[in-house]
């Protein structure tokens, strides 16, 4: 969340905990429409309507942010092969959720270990528009330009995007990210983004890629695309062994 203090005409910003990228539903900032099928591992997580993104680990499991997994499993609908939330294009596959596993050390106050797995009630059928993400090796490094995608908003407080959007964001090293967020950045978090290009609310749980490899999960940040405050992601290389332990992938 954000708290603004105005004292003697000077505007000061106090970080009173991370700003979640989940509610209200919002979208990619500074991006463009993805090509249909460009990211066949992304799913929309819905509770009546889109609330978060996620990524397919294998036919039976998806990975998302732990703060996207607060409801009972039977409340969720997971849709793969989606591109336009408002139009059925024939590639969509809808599944319910049989089981949710949050990281045992997830802290909802600090968003440390903000990662969760959802087991589907029946497996996806893989094809052109639905398939698993490529996962990195445990502890693999992340650098360079990355790509994040989702159905969130194009600005802080904006409206939901019907179309899947993508944006290229630069990796931000831990030391630089800690200059913005201080001790809120802990092991298991990576940062990416710059003023004008970022993920936003409603993109939570969705994928951050290096090439075609899933390296991050949209987690939190101060506002959206605010200069000096990159987006914060759960690091997939950091949690790779935990993912494998539960999914077999």
TrEMBL record:
The keyword ATP-binding does not apply. One of its GO terms (biological process) is protein processing. This is Trypsin-1. It holds the Pfam family Trypsin. It comes from Folsomia candida. Its main location: secreted. Residues 28-248 form the Peptidase S1 domain. Residues 1-16 form the signal peptide. Coiled coil: none annotated. It comes from the Eukaryota. GO terms for cellular component: extracellular region. It is found in: Secreted. One of its GO terms (molecular function) is serine-type endopeptidase activity. Keywords: Disulfide bond, Hydrolase, Protease, Secreted, Serine protease, Signal. SUPFAM superfamilies: Trypsin-like serine proteases. SMART domains: Tryp_SPc. PROSITE patterns: TRYPSIN_DOM, TRYPSIN_HIS, TRYPSIN_SER. Transmembrane segments: none annotated.
